[in-house]
Amino acid sequence: MVCRFSTRLLNICISSFCKVQQLEKAEAVVIDGKRLGYLPDVVTYNTLIAAYCRFVGIDAAYSVLHRMREAGISPDVITYNSLIAGATRYWLLSRCLDLFEEMLQAGILPNVWSYNTLMHCFFKSGRPEEANRIFQDIILNNLSPIQSTFNIMINGLCKAGYTDNALMLFRNLHRHGFLPQIVTYNIVINGLCRLGRLGEARRILKELKESGHVPNVITYTTVMKCCFRSGKFKQGLEIFSEMKNKGYTFDAFAYCTVSSALIKRGMMKEANDCMEEMIRTGIGFDLVSYNTLINLYCKEGKLETALQLLDEIEKVGIEIDEYTHTILVDGLCKSGDIEGAQRHLKHMNMMGFQSNLVAYNCLIQGLCKVGQMDYATKVFEMMELKDSFTYSSMVHNLCKERRFHSASQIMLSCIRSGKKILTSAQRAVLAGLRSSGFRREAKKLRSEIRMAMILNS
DNA sequence: TTAGGGTTAG
C-alpha cells in the first residue's frame, strides 16, 4: 500500500516535470525512485512516452517503450494512443496505422481516444474522407463519442478547408448532447481567422463570453495572430502587451508569434529583443522557438550562427522538421548560395520529408533572383506539387525578364487548375503584352482567363 | 495519455 502510494506520488512528480518540458528532471525522479525501491509502473512510462513524443521526437518515445518492455511492463491502450498521437505529430500516417494494427494484434481493445487520434491523424495527413468515415463509425456504431471527438472533427474540417461544414457541426453540437467548450470556441475562431472572416470570428468570441467562458491564453494567441495576418499590426502588439499583463506569456507561443511578425516587417532589432525577453523569462526552447530564432538569424544574414544553432538542437536531442529545413533553404537562397540550398533540399528529400513545397518555392525565388530563369523553369516543370506561390513567383519573374508569352502560359495553367494567382501577376502579364505590342494576344488572354474562371466556378 | 494557439515562400 505504501509502495503504491509512493509510486503514485512519484508519477505526479514526473508528470509535473514533463508538463514543463523538464524531461531530464523527470528521468532523475525515475532513477531516485528506483533507488528508494519504488519501481516505475505503466503510468510512469506512459507519461514519459507522451512527453518524449511531444517535446523530443518519436524515436525517443520508442526508446522509452523499449525500456518499458525490458522492465517487464506491458504497454496498454494509453501507451499506444500516446504513440499514435506522437506519430501524428510528426506526420507519420503509415506509422499510425501500423501502431493501430499492432495494438489490435496485442489484444488491446482500442477506446474512443484511439479512434479520435486516428481521425486526427487522417485529417493531418490530408485524408479528410477517411477521418470522416471514422467519425461516422463512432457516431453510428455508438462508440460513445466524447466532446473531444467533435472538437477534433470540427478542427479537422476547418483545417481541410470545410469551415462551413465545421460551423454547421458546431451549431448542431447540442443535438449530440454537448455544449461547446472553450476549446471548441477557440477552434472555430481560429478557423474563421485563418480565412480572414474576422466579423464572424468576432461574433463567436462574443458568444464565448456570453456563454460564461473566459477567453484563455489560446484565444488571445489566436486573435493576436489574426491581427498580424490581416495587417492590424499595432492591434496585435496591443494584445501582446495585454497578454503580458494577464500573465499569459508563460510559454513560447506568444513570443514566437510576435517575433515572426516583427521579422516579416523587417523589424530585426525588435524581433531580437522579443526573443531575448523570452530567454530572460526562462521559457524553455522547443522546436518552434528554435525555428523562429534560426529564421531570425537567416534573415539577418547570420547563416553561420543559424547553423551553429542546428548543432545545439541536435545536442538537446530535438528532431528538426520541414520548417527548419525550409527556413535554411530560404536562408541559403537569400544569401546567394543556391548550390548550398539545392544540397539542403536534396538532403531534405533523402530524409523523407514530403512537405517540401515551400522549400522548392524558395529555390525558385532564389534562382530567379540570381537570374537563372531557365533553371527556375526546369525546377518548376519538375515539381509534382505546385501552389499559388509557385505560379505567382514564376509569372512575376518571367514578366521581369519580359518573357510575357511564357508567363501567360503558366498563368493560364494556374487558373485552369483551379488555383488563384496574384492579381498583380495577372496585371503584369496583360500590361506587359500590351506594352510590347501584343494587344491582340492580351485581349485573347483576358477572355481565356474569364473562360477558365467560369469553368472553375 | 489524448483535442485548440506559435515557426517557412511572393
Automatic annotation (TrEMBL):
Highest taxon of source: Eukaryota
Ranges for the PPR repeats: 41-75, 76-110, 111-145, 146-180, 181-215, 216-250, 251-285, 286-320, 321-355, 356-390
Lineage of origin: Eukaryota, Viridiplantae, Streptophyta, Embryophyta, Tracheophyta
Protein name: Pentatricopeptide repeat-containing protein
Keywords: Repeat
UniProt keyword Repeat, yes or no: yes
Organism whose genome encodes this protein: Tetracentron sinense
Family per record: Belongs to the PPR family. P subfamily.
Cross-referenced SUPFAM superfamilies: TPR-like
